[in-house]
Design goal:
Length: 99
């Protein structure tokens, strides 16, 4: 996906892609109300071992959103979580069919 963006939009697409990925990484931690310095450590570890951190982090964020106040941020989290879950399931099932 990053290659397609760079192809169509140039170098600025790479910057936008990485900014978006950082925001998506931080979003579950906002739902869990984690201090900023812990967020920095977790975001750094997400880029070292992505699958091990992102799935549990998003599930914990979902639990935090369900238990917390149901405001605009919680609803936005539910929508983004649903899109991410569908994307992950499609990605996992596509890898099995290509072999």
């Amino acid at each position: 996906m990053l290659n397609r963006l760079i192809e169509k939009m140039g170098g600025i697409a790479k910057v936008k892609y990485f900014l978006f990925s950082i925001i998506v990484s931080i979003f579950p931690m906002v739902m869990l109300d984690i201090p900023f310095w812990i967020m920095v450590i977790i975001v750094g570890s997400v880029y070292i071992m992505p699958v091990l951190m992102i799935v549990p982090l998003w599930i914990a964020g979902l639990i935090g959103a369900i238990c917390g106040p149901q405001d605009v941020w919680a609803i936005l989290y539910y929508i983004v979580f649903g899109i991410a879950a569908v994307w992950l399931i499609v990605r996992i099932t596509d890898k099995g069919e290509k072999e």
